[in-house]
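sorry to bug you again but im stuck and you know this stuff better than me. what follows is a protein written twice so to speak, once as letters and once as structure tokens for the fold. mainly i need to know what kind of three dimensional shape the backbone takes. anything you notice is useful, everything is just below:
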Amino acid sequence: MMVFNPARGFGVYMHWPYCARICPYCDFNVYAAKARDTDPLYQAIIADLRGWRERTGERAIDSLFLGGGTPSLMTGAQVAGVIEEVDRLWGLKPGAEITLEANPDDQVRFADFAAAGVNRLSLGLQSLDDTRLKFLGRTHSSVDALVALEEARGRFRSISIDMIYALPEEGLVGWREELSRALSLGADHLSLYELTIEPGAAFAYAVQRKAWAPLADEVAAELYEITQELTLAAGYDGYEISNHARGHEHQSVHNRIYWSSGDWVAVGPGAHGRLTADGERLAIEAADNPGVYLNQVKSHGVGWASAEKLDALALARERVAMGLRVVEGLAQTDVTELGLNLNAARVAELAADRLLHLSADRVALTAGGRLLADRIATEISP
């Protein structure tokens, strides 16, 4: 029987699917904003939250994450309404993390978001080079990015910036210079992602027609190692494979819930959630299309399109895949309490190869192991 464990965390994720422009590397559930009336979607999200409350019962909120898409296209009043409703339904813990993802283009609303209760801004800079920004399909310039960062300073207790590296033909010197510049900006947190070619994204079709070729794996690995070197030297602990924080207080509470296999409510078109209730662990996905989502909420009170029951094996594998991502690794009891075990022989082999570090009950990736995280998770899982 599976029981909700508050120590793993409980949060709410809201997906706002609209974007001013759909980036060619993105495979998320997104739609062109155009001149849409967004109030019907906002109202459906509020109704969906209420439907979730009936199913979760009483639980205090560790974090609220407004993602997308581009939630910074929302009005300050809409953001405030979501925060207020989440607090009314469950209750936000004192000091709960409230994150909003934002594009630099939307800096005019940063003050409104802060006034609404957002205390952590995740700013999608992606690059500090105009040529790279154009390649990535971004609508802002490098100057816009810097101005937006200055606009955010002092308004939020924590500011995170996103950057993408390993672009085609990117060299070691170029990334070293750009990352050094990003580190000098003094953000509290950095999410540094290697460019991946996602099936269905515009970049995947560009690669198929040989418009350009992805960076070689060996070079991408060197760029990753440079990333770890520079962030550590600048005082940003790499607490997860792609995430770096200037002190524990700036680590992402919400993402920690994911990596700890906690529970989170997920509302908005295409949002994915996890819920442990009535002795079961459910993987829940909302309807993708905004129109279908609205109809689903109207007719059923919730936006769920599917709810899959996860058995012990599926949950164990999920815990391994997510738990290995953080620097402290995975507690073996996360698996044994489900009546299963890690592949002890493979764990021993990978430890001998210095790809895994064993300490008491924990299994963690070494620096070299992080480059092979997905493969290692599969090999040591039950």
In short: The chain has two domains: 7-258, 330-380. The chain has a mean pLDDT of 96. Residues 75 and 232 are 37 Å apart (CA to CA). Residues 330-380 form one domain.
